[in-house]
């Protein structure tokens, strides 16, 4: 029958290939994230710097362009101011001069002259429309409260206005450079040069130029005057957007831009400048500032591309490595599996099963070799084991035969041995193994002499059994010649000394009962005491020995005693297997223990006495691993109960 | 069936006509009133031509809301918004009958009645003065004493009796520069101090990058000069002829304001749309601020909506007597027909 050990439940995921791949995956994942972070941190700074340069360059160029226009208009205005103040041109001459300026400089949208303090002429605005020159007198005096007039008039300084609509001129939104005209140290009028806002807006919001982001222009109050998103233009300032979208960054940007600073700032997502970087720089001619907002995603486009490529590269690398590991792991695990199958076959008894030989790696070759060696050793070992087992079985058979023979040497229990009415006997022999070294025996020497013996051969097993056999066969044969107990044991002693190869000694108690008189002669050679249980249940213990154990010293002087048995006396003979019975606490039963057991007996026949004692001894020794041969022989003499139960 | 319907309509028209006739005390016209016209719902509605005091902004959100939500319609009114005019122009237009209801500040309206009863108040929308004087701390202004020998930009087109009173009562020697509505003159340091409305120009300054800490602010309300601003005014004759129309107009406008205050986002959306259509610069933050401030102005408490309080009138009259040489004693009852209510 195949004696197979169940395979432990190991999941498929714990296969060699799986473990290697998951290990490599974990390592690669760590490396991947590390490299992604490093790349992002390092490159984003580099990219940002590079884009910042780009933005700076773009903004600077536009500012240069706008400043060029504004400065030119400023210069023309100042020249005109100088002409009007210092060269005493009359009104008509100055108007002609301004008309020429308008015609020659397309950047100038219109010119307004309010020199009524000097010339008494009405304020007038000049412009060209469809290549025709127009001059219109301003009738509504409200112009005096407009910024372009009032601010330079009060401050005496030139002023760039915020964008406004000149309803007296072309009705377009313009920004104006306005400066006072002086006469004798007093302001004699105001001269205003207008630039169309749309023109400046076009320069800033040119999509073909500013592909990378939204460029914008803010005025000195932070008002957005140019932006690709027309809804913001003139409606919102950076501060109003900051309030509307609750973005402090926009307010800071507004403060920085209106105070002529330049720099870079990040704006959050919830505003028209959604999640972008803004670079800003002031114009040098007025207090305006230009900026460019680049979407964060655009800015990170390149780095995201790099990260994407990096990710794909890692995935490909991982897949390739995984495939290689899988193939390699399979080439290792396949021979391992074959070896495992071969081991299973060997385990189930097929010792000639072919062990697969692998040369794919040194370790596998070694393992295959070890398996082959193990297979050979196993075969030899199993062979030896089989022979040994056969021999053992043979010996065991012999022992069982010997045991049977030994059993047969012992008298079988009958109510009255040899039909002697006055004697009842019951013997029990319980060997510790298959065969034992204890014996009890009884036989008739002649019609009136009944001999009984209990002996214990030192040791156990075959040798002790052989010695016991010798004792049990020798005694009946010599008894008729010696008759006396001491003589019989003396002869036995000499026999044992001569023939005992193993020098096993034997303790023995032998008694010869004269049936007619009840006189018992006995000799105790190193044996345990004799118990005599009287009819009144009193117990007499005969401890004295008449010599040492037999089979040690030749020609031993063995004594004997004689006692007169009373009617009903019950003789209890036993071996030290009884008194040396151990309980679980490793305590011997001892003579006293046995006396206690016997005192408590209520039996009235040797058979009951023997069985009860044995039962009590077994109870005492229950649970103990100690085991010895146990022999018990109980006889009674002329017991009053004899015949009652027969 | 059709015939019966026509008869019924004719009967209803007759009743309406009789009611209108009885409303006209003089009974000089036997024709259908020129104000009456058929509305979209088929019912007759009274046409009101109203001129707000300034261009569209959240200052008038209640009026826009009442139009948008058909509240005037429900009161049987068809309100037509006329161009905003200057006070003087509005008064003339009112005289000429080009508009029916005008929008004036209380002190302006009192002065308009300088010679005789010219206009009467049919509803006081503003309950609180909003004028503030603002100076830059960076220009050395941190107390009203610092106003001395400085330039004050002051609106040239409106009554600034309250500002006058403040200057005179505090003996401030400040040069007054008449200005229009731009705050740039202040930003560019052409004037040192400027008058602003809390709900409007003040916020424009904040949106030009000023912080409250940078500004020294005098809130005239805090100087016992709390003369309320705009209210609705009609000619006394118009009120006599159409008292219910006047009452309905006020009530519908109040309803409009209450709707605007309880639906601020919707109101600001509407204002922004109107401003955009009128090509006026606008941004949400500013109009939201304005609407929020208007709530304090229009409805300081639930019981003070739309009414002119006697003490406000008396205070305004006192100031007019003191600082604008008003020599006619105008009675509250004459000025405010609802005084007895």
Descriptive labels:
heterodimer; A: 646 residues; alpha+beta; 7-stranded antiparallel beta sheet; 5-stranded antiparallel beta sheet; 15 helices; 22 strands; 45% helix; B: 341 residues; alpha/beta; 6-stranded mixed beta sheet; 5-stranded mixed beta sheet; 14 helices; 11 strands; globular
Q: TL;DR?
A:
Chain A has 15 helices and 22 strands. Helices cover 45% and strands 21% of the residues of chain A.
- Structural class of the helices, strands and pairings of chain B? alpha/beta
Shape of chain B: globular
Number of discrete helical segments of chain B: 14
Shape of chain A: rod-shaped
The largest interface is:
A-B, 29 and 26 residues
Helices and strands of chain B, in order, run as HEEHHEHEHEEEHEHEHEEHHHHHH
| Biggest sheet descriptor of chain A | 7 strands, antiparallel
Work out the strand percent of chain B.
Answer: 15-25%
The helix count of chain A comes to 15
Question: Total number of β-strand segments of chain B?
Answer: 11
| Mean pLDDT metric of chain B | 86
- Helix fraction of chain A, binned, reads 40-55%
Instruction: Classify the helix fraction of chain B into a percent range.
Output: 40-55%
Strand runs of chain A, count: 22
| Overall average residue pLDDT of chain A | 86
Major sheet attributes of chain B: 6 strands, mixed
Ranges of chain A with pLDDT <50 over ≥5 residues? none
Radius of gyration of chain B: 22 Å
Q: In terms of quaternary structure, what is this? A: heterodimer
Q: Please indicate the percent range of residues of chain A in DSSP E strands (runs of 2 or more).
A: 15-25%
Which regions of chain B are unreliable across 5 or more consecutive residues at pLDDT < 50? 1-32
List the helices and strands and how they pair.
The complex is a heterodimer of chains A (646) and B (341).
Chain A: H1 16-86, H2 91-104, E1 110-114, H3 116-119, E2 124-129, E3 132-137, H4 147-155, E4 159-160, E5 164-165, E6 173-183, E7 186-196, H5 197-204, E8 214-218, E9 224-226, H6 238-244, H7 248-258, E10 263-267, E11 276-282, E12 289-295, H8 296-299, H9 301-347, H10 362-409, E13 423-430, E14 438-446, E15 449-457, H11 461-482, H12 485-499, E16 506-514, E17 519-525, E18 530-533, E19 539-542, E20 561-564, E21 570-574, H13 576-579, H14 590-599, H15 606-621, E22 630-637
Antiparallel strand pairs in A: 1-2, 1-7, 2-3, 4-6, 5-6, 6-7, 8-9, 8-12, 10-11, 11-12, 13-22, 14-15, 15-16, 16-17, 17-20, 18-19, 18-21, 21-22
Helix pairs in contact in A: 1-2, 1-9, 6-7, 9-10, 10-11, 11-12
Chain B: H1 2-23, E1 36-38, E2 44-51, H2 61-68, H3 71-74, E3 77-81, H4 87-96, E4 101-105, H5 106-112, E5 120-123, E6 131-136, E7 150-155, H6 161-169, E8 174-179, H7 184-187, E9 193-197, H8 201-206, E10 215-219, E11 230-234, H9 236-241, H10 243-262, H11 264-277, H12 284-298, H13 310-323, H14 332-335
Parallel strand pairs in B: 2-3, 2-4, 7-8, 7-9
Antiparallel strand pairs in B: 1-2, 4-11, 5-11, 6-9, 6-10
């Amino acid at each position: 029958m195949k004696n197979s050990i169940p395979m432990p439940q190991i999941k498929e995921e714990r296969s060699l290939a799986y473990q290697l791949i998951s290990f490599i995956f974990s390592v690669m994942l760590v490396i991947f994230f590390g490299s992604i972070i490093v790349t992002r941190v390092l490159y984003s700074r580099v990219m940002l710097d590079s884009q910042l340069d780009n933005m700076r360059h773009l903004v600077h160029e536009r500012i240069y362009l706008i400043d060029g226009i504004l400065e030119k208009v400023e210069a023309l205005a100042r020249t005109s101011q100088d002409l009007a103040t210092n060269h005493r041109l009359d009104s008509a001459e100055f108007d002609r001069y301004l008309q020429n300026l308008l015609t020659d400089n397309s950047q100038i949208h219109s010119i307004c002259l309010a020199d009524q303090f000097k010339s008494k002429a009405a304020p007038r605005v000049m412009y060209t429309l469809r290549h025709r020159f127009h001059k219109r007198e301003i009738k509504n005096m409200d112009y005096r409260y407009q910024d372009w007039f009032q601010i330079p008039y009060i401050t005496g300084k030139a002023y760039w206005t915020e964008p406004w609509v000149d309803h007296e001129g072309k009705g377009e939104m313009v920004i104006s450079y306005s400066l006072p005209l002086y006469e004798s140290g007093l302001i004699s009028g105001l001269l205003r040069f207008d630039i169309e806002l749309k023109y400046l807006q076009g320069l800033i919001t040119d999509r073909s130029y500013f592909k990378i982001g939204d460029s914008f222009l803010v005025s000195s109050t932070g008002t957005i005057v140019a932006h690709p998103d027309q809804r913001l233009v003139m409606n919102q300032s950076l501060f109003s957007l900051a309030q509307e979208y609750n973005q402090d960054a926009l307010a800071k940007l507004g403060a920085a831009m209106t105070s002529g600073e330049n720099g870079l700032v990040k704006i959050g997502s919830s505003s028209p400048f959604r999640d972008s970087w803004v670079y800003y720089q002031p114009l040098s001619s007025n207090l305006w500032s230009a900026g460019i907002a680049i979407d964060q995603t655009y800015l990170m486009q390149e780095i995201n591309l790099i990260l994407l490529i990096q990710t794909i590269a890692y995935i490909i690398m991982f897949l390739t490595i995984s495939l290689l590991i899988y193939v390699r792991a399979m080439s290792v695990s396949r021979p391992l599996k074959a070896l495992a199958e071969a081991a299973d076959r060997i385990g189930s008894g097929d010792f000639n099963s072919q062990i697969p030989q692998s040369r794919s790696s040194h370790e596998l070759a070694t393992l295959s070799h070890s398996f082959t060696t193990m297979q050979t050793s196993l075969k030899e070992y199993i062979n030896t084991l089989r022979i040994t087992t056969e021999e053992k079985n043979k010996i065991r058979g012999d022992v069982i035969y010997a045991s049977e023979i030994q059993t047969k040497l012992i008298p079988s229990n009958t109510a009255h041995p040899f039909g002697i009415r006055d004697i009842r006997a019951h013997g029990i022999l319980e060997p510790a193994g298959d065969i034992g070294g204890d014996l009890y025996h009884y036989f008739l020497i002649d019609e009136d002499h009944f001999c009984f013996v209990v002996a214990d051969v030192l040791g156990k097993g075959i040798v002790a059994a052989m010695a016991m056999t010798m004792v049990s066969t020798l005694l009946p044969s010599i008894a008729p010649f010696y008759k006396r107990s001491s003589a019989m044991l003396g002869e036995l002693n000499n026999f044992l000394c001569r023939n005992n190869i193993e020098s096993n000694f034997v303790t023995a108690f032998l008694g010869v009962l004269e049936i007619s008189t009840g006189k018992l002669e006995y000799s105790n050679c190193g044996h345990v005491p004799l118990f005599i249980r009287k009819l009144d249940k009193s117990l007499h213990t005969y401890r004295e020995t008449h010599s040492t154990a037999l089979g040690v010293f030749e020609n031993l002087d063995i004594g004997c005693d004689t006692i007169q048995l009373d009617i009903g006396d019950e003789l209890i003979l036993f071996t030290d297997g009884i008194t040396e019975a151990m309980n679980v606490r490793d305590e011997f039963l001892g003579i006293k223990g046995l006396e206690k057991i016997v005192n408590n007996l209520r039996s009235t026949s040797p058979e009951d006495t023997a069985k009860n004692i044995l039962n009590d001894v077994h109870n005492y020794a229950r649970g103990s691993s100690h085991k010895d041969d146990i022999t018990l022989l109980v006889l009674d003499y002329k017991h009053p109960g004899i015949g009652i139960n027969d | 069936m059709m015939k019966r319907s026509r008869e019924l309509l004719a009967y209803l028209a007759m009743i309406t006509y009789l009611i209108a006739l009885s409303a006209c005390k003089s009974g000089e016209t036997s024709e259908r009133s020129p104000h009456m016209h058929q509305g979209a719902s088929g019912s007759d509605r009274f046409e009101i031509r109203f001129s707000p005091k300034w261009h569209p902004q959240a200052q008038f959100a209640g009026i826009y809301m009442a139009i948008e939500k058909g509240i005037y319609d429900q009161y049987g009114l068809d309100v037509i918004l006329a161009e905003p005019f200057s006070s003087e122009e509005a008064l003339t237009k009112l005289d000429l009958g080009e508009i029916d209801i005008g929008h004036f500040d209380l002190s302006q309206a009192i002065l308009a009645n300088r010679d005789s009863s010219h206009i009467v108040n049919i509803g006081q929308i503003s309950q609180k003065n909003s004028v503030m004087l603002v100076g830059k701390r960076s220009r050395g202004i941190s107390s009203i004493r610092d106003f001395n020998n400085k330039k004050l930009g002051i609106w040239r087109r409106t009554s600034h009796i309250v500002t006058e009173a403040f200057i005179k009562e505090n003996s401030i020697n400040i040069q007054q520069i008449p200005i229009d509505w731009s705050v740039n003159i202040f930003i560019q340091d052409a004037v040192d101090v400027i008058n602003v409305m809390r709900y409007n120009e003040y916020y424009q300054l904040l949106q030009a990058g000023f912080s409250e800490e940078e500004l020294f602010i005098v809130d005239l309300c805090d100087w016992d000069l709390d003369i309320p601003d705009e209210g609705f005014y009609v000619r006394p004759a118009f009120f006599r002829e159409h008292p219910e129309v006047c009452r309905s107009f006020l009530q519908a406008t109040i309803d409009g304001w209450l709707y605007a205050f309880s639906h601020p986002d919707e109101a600001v959306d509407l204002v922004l749309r109107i401003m955009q259509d009128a090509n006026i610069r606008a941004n949400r933050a500013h109009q939201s601020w304005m609407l929020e401030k208007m709530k304090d102005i229009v409805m300081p408490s639930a019981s003070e909506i739309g009414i002119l309080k006697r003490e406000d009138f008396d205070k305004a009259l006192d100031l007019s007597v003191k600082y604008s040489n008003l020599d006619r004693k105008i009675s509250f009852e004459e000025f405010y027909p609802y005084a007895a209510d």
